[in-house]
């Protein structure tokens, strides 16, 4: 079992998230996180989906996702060289006596304090899950009021664009290259 | 020129060469029905329940290989379609379902007869649409029909609010669909085909398992060529019946839970399984861990998600069956596998699974056999689900392509009558026999009214054992004969048929079977025969649930000796 990162380009239409979520529920696949936003092409959204499971299971996830009409392309970038980030907002209890210690910790993690109130501060941190988890553990001692995490977003490094829609796909086996008329039964 | 949404829908359906729709009108689809008389080339067949509409569209699609269309109103009309849509989904049948929806301002308000049918059908359709503008209708219909037939076929639902039918828009039918990222792979990857050919050429005991994908792809000739060239025996799934002539020397019948003993033994002994257009359903494989224990597996399917879903595959080939087999046949070396084929023949002699025992009583197997004899196999058989379905698979010899229509995946009782209506409408030149159980028949019995009103010249055989027979069989074998809720005090089917205006007779004696079937065949209109058969007859062979394919229960030996 390992965490896999899938990237899906999907049509920006109502109900698409529902279709994806419904598929995961229906097939019993477990989503760790899912993050959605606009893609570089108009009319498309990009989903970063983190799935926990064996390679065979994740391959099934990928193929079933690919069957959805509104899903334009799915790629498993787990084994690629990627940049992966998550953003978290953490609201921590802070008294005048603990505030300076808090600021030091936040500095070490290159995080930012984005809001200060009389009895709390809100920390914004970006990084991979491990970094956020470690900061979370350190801040726990001060008393955590609230936490909000975006889930992972990811991109392959360098020039490779695994999700190119038009033209030839760069990473996939030739299964998408065949051309020809639609299969219509000739009974 | 501007047209109403209803007119645009009709125009678009005509562009898709739709000739027949099965449906029931209602409030939300009234504007659509109101436009129909302007388009007399669109025949609408009124059914008596929307489940019947969906099954009929499915039967039509399966018989003809073209998209079947069903129509229902919003709310209960739409929900009644669900069973039929699910059946089409599991068996990859191209159906387009058109449902009315409440008017746009009422959506989300729990209005009268409002139901979220796109939400409900999300997991049982290939895709579905809620059309919010009349100007989108033409594009949606074009896409829906394309998606329904493309790649692995399946059902698509189009939900149309009442006021969209009335709204006017410019009609222009798109000449192509624009679906990003969708292009099904037709040709198998050459390297994979080469690998498969190598395995086939080296195999001592290869076995073809043919599924419905062969029929959908129309790859009858290519399959026959592969089998004959490599002298490879062929077994089929239930839905693969009709992909390979059963009288062929290399044909060894159906595999699976109620498969032929020798077919299952062949799977068990094979060193190579060539699975073609099938999806390793649990009724075909039995316990997966005990499936084909000595075999490597080549799996040919157009749906990449089927590869490795249930069974470990050594050489997957994603592509259309006809295309892949064409390429594969070029590389398969002619061979003579006398030893292997005669081994399976020997198993067939030792374990004849389709012999009907001699007895005075009226056996269901005998009825099916006589339908075969009298039609000489020149019929399309449409079954429901249960014992009669298995006997229909066993005792009719299917030599002609695509001659059995049966909902194997979902297993919906009540499929037979409406699906047979669809099949007969699709292929009026064919003799269509609807073979029903007395339980399932009562689930859609109201479609007898459709048969009568449209004069659909079906021949209907009810295998009447006064039980929910397959469930009773399980109760007998696995629940110590406790027949809970399975005995049926059925109606007098002859009187029911006559009430609908359909000629019918009851058969209680073995000697009446042949004359009754002959009479049905000679009768001009629809005809129903109520065969009152042996009540506690079981379907054999049987692989008990949870057991491996090799653990075959055959008909008890003492009965066999009595033959």
Describe the structure.
The complex is a heterodimer of chains A (about 190) and B (about 575). Chain A is built from four helices and nine strands, in the order E-H-E-E-H-E-E-H-E-E-H-E-E. By secondary structure, chain A is of the alpha+beta class. Chain B has about 575 residues and is an alpha/beta fold. Chain B folds into three domains: about 170 residues, Thiamin diphosphate (ThDP)-binding fold, Pyr/PP domains (Rossmann fold, 3-Layer(aba) Sandwich), CATH 3.40.50; about 160 residues, TPP-binding domain (Rossmann fold, 3-Layer(aba) Sandwich), CATH 3.40.50; about 180 residues, 3-Layer(aba) Sandwich (Rossmann fold), CATH 3.40.50. Chain B has 23 helices and 20 strands. In chain B, strand 6, helix 6 and strand 7 form a beta-alpha-beta unit. The N and C termini of chain B lie far apart (about 75 Å). Chains A and B meet through helix 1, helix 2 and strand 4 of A and helix 6 and helix 9 of B.
Question: Could you name the key traits of this structure?
Answer:
heterodimer; A: 187 residues; alpha+beta; Alpha-Beta Plaits; 2 domains; five-stranded antiparallel beta sheet; 4 helices; 25% helix; B: 563 residues; alpha/beta; Rossmann fold; 3 domains; six-stranded parallel beta sheet; globular
Amount of helix of chain A: 25-40%
Tell me the Rg of chain B in angstroms: 24 Å
Question: Into how many domains do the coordinates of chain B divide?
Answer: 3
In CATH, what is the class of the largest domain in chain A?
Alpha Beta
The fraction of residues assigned to DSSP E strands of chain B is: 15-25%
Helix segment count of chain B?
A: 23
Average pLDDT number of chain A: 85
Radius of gyration of chain A: 21 Å
Tell me the layout of helices and strands.
The complex is a heterodimer of chains A (187) and B (563).
Chain A: E1 2-11, H1 16-27, E2 31-38, E3 44-53, H2 55-67, E4 71-76, E5 82-93, H3 99-108, E6 112-116, E7 120-127, H4 129-140, E8 144-149, E9 153-156
Antiparallel strand pairs in A: 1-3, 1-4, 2-3, 5-7, 5-8, 5-9, 6-7
Chain B: E1 2-4, H1 5-15, E2 20-23, H2 30-35, E3 43-46, H3 50-64, E4 68-72, H4 76-90, E5 95-101, H5 117-120, E6 127-130, H6 137-149, E7 156-161, H7 162-166, E8 168-170, H8 190-202, E9 206-210, H9 212-217, H10 220-230, E10 234-236, E11 251-254, H11 261-269, E12 272-276, H12 282-285, E13 296-301, E14 315-318, H13 321-331, H14 338-350, H15 364-375, E15 380-383, H16 387-395, E16 404-405, H17 416-426, E17 432-437, H18 438-441, H19 448-453, E18 459-464, H20 469-478, H21 493-499, E19 503-507, H22 513-522, E20 527-532, H23 557-561
Parallel strand pairs in B: 2-3, 2-4, 4-5, 5-7, 6-7, 9-10, 9-12, 10-11, 12-13, 13-14, 15-16, 15-17, 17-18, 18-20, 19-20
Antiparallel strand pairs in B: 1-8
């Amino acid at each position: 079992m390992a965490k896999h990162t899938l990237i899906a380009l999907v049509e920006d239409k109502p109900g698409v998230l529902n279709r994806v979520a419904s598929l995961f529920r229906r097939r019993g696949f477990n989503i760790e996180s899912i993050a959605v936003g606009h893609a570089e092409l108009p009319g498309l959204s990009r989903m970063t989906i983190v799935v926990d499971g064996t390679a065979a299971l994740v391959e099934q996830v990928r193929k079933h996702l690919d069957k959805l009409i509104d899903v334009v392309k799915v790629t498993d970038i787990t084994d690629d060289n990627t940049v992966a980030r998550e953003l978290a907002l953490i609201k921590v209890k802070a008294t005048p006596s603990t505030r300076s210690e808090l600021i030091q910790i936040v500095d070490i993690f290159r995080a930012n304090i984005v809001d200060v109130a009389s009895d709390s501060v809100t920390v914004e941190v970006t990084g991979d899950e491990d970094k956020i988890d470690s900061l979370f553990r350190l801040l726990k001692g001060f008393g955590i009021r609230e936490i909000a995490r975006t889930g992972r977003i990811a991109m392959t490094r360098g020039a490779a664009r695994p999700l190119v829609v038009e033209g030839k796909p760069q990473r996939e086996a030739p299964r998408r290259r065949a051309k020809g008329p639609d299969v219509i039964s000739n009974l | 020129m501007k047209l109403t949404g209803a007119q645009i829908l009709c125009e678009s359906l005509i562009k898709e060469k739709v000739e027949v729709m099965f449906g029931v009108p209602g409030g939300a689809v009234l504007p659509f029905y109101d436009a129909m008389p302007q388009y007399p080339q669109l025949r609408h067949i009124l059914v008596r329940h929307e489940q019947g509409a969906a099954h009929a569209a499915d039967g039509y699609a399966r018989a003809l290989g073209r998209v079947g269309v069903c129509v229902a109103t919003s709310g209960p009309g739409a929900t009644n379609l669900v069973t039929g849509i699910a059946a089409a989904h599991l068996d990859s049948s191209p159906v387009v379902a058109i449902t009315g929806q409440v008017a746009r301002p009422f959506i989300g308000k729990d209005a009268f007869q409002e139901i979220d049918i796109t939400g409900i059908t999300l997991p049982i359709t290939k895709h579905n649409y809620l059309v919010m503008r009349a100007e989108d209708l033409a594009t949606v219909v074009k896409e829906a029909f394309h998606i329904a037939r493309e790649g692995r076929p399946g059902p698509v639902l189009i939900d149309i609010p009442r006021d969209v039918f009335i709204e006017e828009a410019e009609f222009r039918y798109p000449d192509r669909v624009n679906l990003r990222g969708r292009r099904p792979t037709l040709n198998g990857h050459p390297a994979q085909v080469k690998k498969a050919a190598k395995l086939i050429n080296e195999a001592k005991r290869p076995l073809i398992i043919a599924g419905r994908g062969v029929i959908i792809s129309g790859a009858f000739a290519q399959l026959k060529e592969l089998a004959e060239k490599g002298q490879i025996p062929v077994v089929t799934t239930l839905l693969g019946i009709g992909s390979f002539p059963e009288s062929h020397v290399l044909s060894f019948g159906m595999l699976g839970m109620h498969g032929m003993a020798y077919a299952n033994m062949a799977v068990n002994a094979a060193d190579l399984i060539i699975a073609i257009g099938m999806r390793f359903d649990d009724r075909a494989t039995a316990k997966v861990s005990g499936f084909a224990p000595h075999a490597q597996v080549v799996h040919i399917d157009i749906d990449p998600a089927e590869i490795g879903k249930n069974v470990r595959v050594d050489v997957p080939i994603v592509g259309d069956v006809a295309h892949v087999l064409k390429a594969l046949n070029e590389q398969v070396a002619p061979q003579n596998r006398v030893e292997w084929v005669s081994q399976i023949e020997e198993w067939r002699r030792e374990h004849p699974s389709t012999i009907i025992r001699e007895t005075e009583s009226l056996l269901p197997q005998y009825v099916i056999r006589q339908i075969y004899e009298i039609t000489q196999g020149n019929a399309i058989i449409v079954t429901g689900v249960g014992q009669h379905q298995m006997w229909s698979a066993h005792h009719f010899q299917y030599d002609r392509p695509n001659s059995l229509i049966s909902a194997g995946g979902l297993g919906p009782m009540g499929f037979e009558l409406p699906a047979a209506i669809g099949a007969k409408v699709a292929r009026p030149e064919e003799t269509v026999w609807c073979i029903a159980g007395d339980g399932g028949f009562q689930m859609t019995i109201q479609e007898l009214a459709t048969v009568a009103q449209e004069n659909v010249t079906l021949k209907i055989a009810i295998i009447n054992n006064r039980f929910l027979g397959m469930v009773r069989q399980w109760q007998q074998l696995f629940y110590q004969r406790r027949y809970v809720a399975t005995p049926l005090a059925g109606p007098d089917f002859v009187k029911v048929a006559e009430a609908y205006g359909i000629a019918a007779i009851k058969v209680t004696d073995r000697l009446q079977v042949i004359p009754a079937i002959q009479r049905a065949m000679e009768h001009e209109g629809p005809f129903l025969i109520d065969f009152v058969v042996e009540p506690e007859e079981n379907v054999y062979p049987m692989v008990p649930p949870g057991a491996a394919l090799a653990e075959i229960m055959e008909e008890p030996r003492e009965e066999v000796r009595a033959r």
